[in-house]
């Protein structure tokens, strides 16, 4: 199975800050990488697919980059509604796997 | 509007069985692969199972193979997960999720889970 590792596991930040979350794959997955946002008690929401494509309806402050084994999710200017947990997911293998999550908290 | 609504969760004893359902609406259900993804309390997301649009391809995570069975009824726009021999470690919120594909050539595509239900809680405890 392909293992996905996110860093950091959590971060404290402020509204308006630039936030970067990293996701590493245990083997090369090209650009078969998705990002999801999850708020407490809610279902995950797709943000980015194919490493850098913005899902319809998602604000442009979210962006994704990377290929191979290292990927990043960037929030250019954090808004109050962005405090949540973020997960990466590889879709290179049909045994989909997720990272452990990164919790973005208010400083 | 795409909607996925799970049901069937509850409290069950270890070794027991439960059948989850996911009712789909707002899209052509028979054209999409579907998944079950679970989340143990306070933990991350774990993909559990996949069924293709016509049920010709099915996958499971190793930890549920031989115990869980995914199925679908395209006439009823419904997805199911039959869970047998349940264990404490199966306790989780179970989400159904639609898979969308983006083709970049004749055989290559990107897969994403673009719509999710609200989840149903399964608790395995004596």
Please specify the SSE layout and strand pairing.
The complex is a heterodimer of chains A (107) and B (126).
Chain A: E1 4-7, E2 10-13, E3 19-25, E4 33-38, E5 45-49, E6 53-54, E7 62-67, E8 70-75, E9 85-90, E10 97-98, E11 102-106
Parallel strand pairs in A: 2-11
Antiparallel strand pairs in A: 1-3, 3-8, 4-5, 4-9, 5-6, 7-8, 9-10, 9-11
Chain B: E1 3-7, E2 10-12, E3 18-25, E4 33-39, E5 45-51, E6 58-60, E7 68-73, E8 78-83, E9 92-103, E10 109-116, E11 120-124
Parallel strand pairs in B: 2-11
Antiparallel strand pairs in B: 1-3, 3-8, 4-5, 4-9, 5-6, 7-8, 9-10, 9-11
Distinct helical segment count of chain B: 0
* Radius of gyration of chain B using CA atoms only: 14 Å
Largest sheet of chain A: 7 strands, mixed
Main structural class of chain A: mainly beta
Beta content of chain B comes to over 45%
Helix content of chain B: under 10%
Give the strand content of chain A. Answer: over 45%
Q: Please provide the count of β strands of chain B.
A: 11
Query: Which word captures the global form of chain A?
Result: globular
Low-confidence stretches of chain A: none
Secondary structure: helix percent of chain A: under 10%
Calculate Rg of chain A over CA atoms.
Answer: 13 Å
The residue-averaged pLDDT of chain B reads: 97
Shape of chain B from CA axes?
Answer: globular
Distance between the termini of chain A: 36 Å
């Amino acid at each position: 199975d392909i293992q996905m590792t996110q860093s950091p596991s959590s971060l404290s930040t402020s509204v308006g800050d630039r936030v970067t979350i990293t996701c590493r794959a245990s083997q090369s997955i090209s650009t078969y990488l998705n990002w999801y946002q999850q708020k407490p008690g809610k279902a995950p929401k797709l943000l980015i697919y194919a490493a850098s494509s913005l899902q319809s309806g998602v604000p442009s402050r979210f962006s994704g980059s990377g290929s191979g084994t290292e990927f990043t999710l960037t929030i250019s200017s954090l808004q109050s509604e962005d405090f949540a947990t973020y997960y990466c997911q590889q879709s290179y293998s049909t045994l989909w796997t997720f990272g452990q999550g990164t919790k973005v908290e208010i400083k | 509007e795409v909607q996925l609504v799970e049901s069937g969760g509850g409290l069950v004893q270890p070794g027991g069985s439960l059948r989850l359902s996911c009712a789909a609406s707002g899209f052509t259900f028979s054209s999409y692969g579907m998944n079950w993804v679970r989340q143990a309390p306070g933990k991350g997301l774990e993909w559990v199972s996949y069924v293709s649009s016509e049920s010709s391809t099915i996958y499971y995570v190793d930890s549920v193979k031989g115990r869980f069975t995914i199925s679908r009824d395209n006439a009823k726009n419904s997805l199911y997960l039959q869970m047998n021999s349940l264990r404490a470690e199966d306790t989780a919120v179970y989400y159904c999720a639609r898979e969308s594909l983006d083709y970049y050539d004749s055989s290559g595509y990107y897969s994403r889970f673009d719509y999710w239900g609200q989840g149903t809680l399964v608790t395995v405890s004596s």
